[in-house]
Amino acid sequence: MSVFDALRRPEHTGENRCLPCTAVNAVLVVLVGLALGVLWPPIGAVVIAVGTLLVYLRGYVVPGTPSFAPKLVSAVGLDGIFGHREDDAAARQSDSLDANVDPDVMLSTLLNAGVLVEEPDGLFLTDEAREEWESAMATLRTASDEELADAVASAVPFEATVTPDFGGLAIEGPAMSVWLSRPQAIADVATLDTVVERDVDPMVALAATEPMRMFTEVCPECGGVVEETTTRNCCGGTAGLHDSPEHEILGCVDCGAVVYEFREE
Ligand SMILES: [Zn+2]
C-alpha cells in the first residue's frame, strides 16, 4: 500500500466526489497558500501543492466541508454549474404515502390477502403478487410523467391533485402534501393496484406502499437490478435531510434510482 493509497478516501473521490466540496476546498487552499506566500513564498507554494494533492486524494481537506460547502456554493448561486441544483430530482428525498393504519393490522391483512407470505427466514412477497406487482410496474414505466400523475390520482383512495414536479410527482390531498420520485411513484401505484385487487381496504393498501418498496428486486424506473447499497455522495442524494451523509438504501445499479431508504435506528 503506497502512502497515496493510505491517504486516499474513495468515499469522497472518484464517482463519489462532491464537486462543490472540491471546488470550495481548492479555492480555500489557494487563498491560504497565497496569504502565506506573501509572508514566505516557499511555504505558500508547499501549502498549495500539498493542499491540492490532498483535495485530489481525499475529496476535501477542511474538516466539516460536506456540511457547509454545498450550502455555500448554493448561497452564492453557483450550484447550477455543478449539477446540484435544489430542484434536481436526485437531490430530493421521496416522501411516502402515509395512512393512519396499525402496522400489525396492515401486516396481517397483507398475509391474509396472499400478498405476503411468512417463511421461517422472514417475510416475502408471494410469487403471484410479485408477478402482478412487477408487471404493473413494467406498464407504468412506459408512462409519461403526465400519465403517471393521472395513474397516481386514480390509484390513491382520496381526492388528490397530482402534478409532475421536480422530475417526480407532487401530490396534494386533503390530509397530505407529498412529493414522490418517479421510481417510487411507479412502485406505489403498482402496490395500490396489486393490493386493492385482493379486496384489501384501500387505506391499508396505502399504508403498505412504503413497506412494499422493501421487496423491490426490479427497478421501477428502468427494469434494472435493485440491490442494497449506500448513498455516499455528500451533497447529492439526501444530504441535508439526514444527519449522516451515508445510509443504507435499495438502489438501482443501472440508473441509480433510490427505491427504498432504510430508516436509521
Ligand atoms: Zn433503474
TrEMBL record:
Span of domain DUF8054: 5-78, 107-199, 217-262
Superkingdom per UniProt: Archaea
InterPro entries attached to this UniProt entry: DUF8054_C, DUF8054_M, DUF8054_N
Name of the protein this chain belongs to: Uncharacterized protein
Originating organism: Haloferax mediterranei (strain ATCC 33500 / DSM 1411 / JCM 8866 / NBRC 14739 / NCIMB 2177 / R-4) (Halobacterium mediterranei)
